[in-house]
Structure prediction request, 323 residues.
Amino acid sequence: MKSEIIEFRKLLEGATNIAIVAHERPDGDAIGSLIALSLSLQKAGKQVTPILADGVPTRFQFLPGADEIKRTFPIECNLLIVLDCSDVVRTGFKVEDLPRGVDINVDHHPTNTHYGIVNVVDAYASATAEILFDLAEPLGLEIDSRVAMNLLTGLVTDTIGFRTTNVTPKVLQIVAQLIELGAPLAEIYERALNRRSVTVARYWGCGLSRLEQEDGLVWTSLTLEDRQHVGYSGKDDADLINLLSTIDGAEVTVIFVEQPEGAVKVSWRSRAGLNIAPLAEAFGGGGHHQAAGAMIVGDLEEVTKRVISATRGILESESETSR
Ligand code: AMP
Ligand code: MN
Ligand code: MN
Prediction:
């Protein structure tokens, strides 16, 4: 057994009150992993508080256990686990507002800074949920149907419905086991990935109406006014980026989402073989080779100019090296 898993087990044995947190503006892997680990530790007799700084978006409220998620830390906490976060700031909490130092860090971002006492980080894993599935047996944790449903949600969403290049035969074997354990794949796929509200469709329309394309680069923006106009309550792109990345010829797709306090949330997606994570890091963000993001201070127009110019640079240098 790998030493981190032995350490993980030891820390769990000594813990009674466990707080688990995943990243801000949570996606399906953050939420699914958080609930799955919480439920299985509760079943093992632990007192567990699952926490998300931003709470659970409506789209994921169907998940069993989602109603247990809190937005603040409990008073008693003798173990802190962080999931699906490349660094502590990604939790959405300031370091000084955490109840203690991070004991266990479970993640699959190549940019992970190994901020825990125990770090189970596998950049080849398709989702944090995949790592948690593998950990269940050595940690002696049960995967019941509710845990299975949450883990499968993490896998379905982080692989955008098994479309990313890190979907290995092993991932699909895990999927098969999770279905056998009671996870409803079709329902998860439909609710966590496919289904959209009319509001979201209108919001997408705002972004699509301003779509720009230049060689292999495709981008657009979503403004505060768009959100107000259509009545969209989130601060994100409502997954429009994944739609844009299906456009024929898009080597790199970028979306700019204007934020309330003079900042812009930028998301990049790139085709297989083009690593976009260092660019996101250069702008203070992070992510995976093919999916990365950053929160950049500045107004929409200025940030768009800077980011598009830098992204164009990456595409140009890549086409030179491949010549
Ligand atoms: P997004 O563009 O928000 O869908 O995120 C794509 C990937 O980039 C995710 O795996 C995130 O973990 C990562 N990411 C997004 N925003 C940030 C950020 N501000 N800092 C670090 N990583 C980020
Ligand atoms: Mn995530
Ligand atoms: Mn993830």
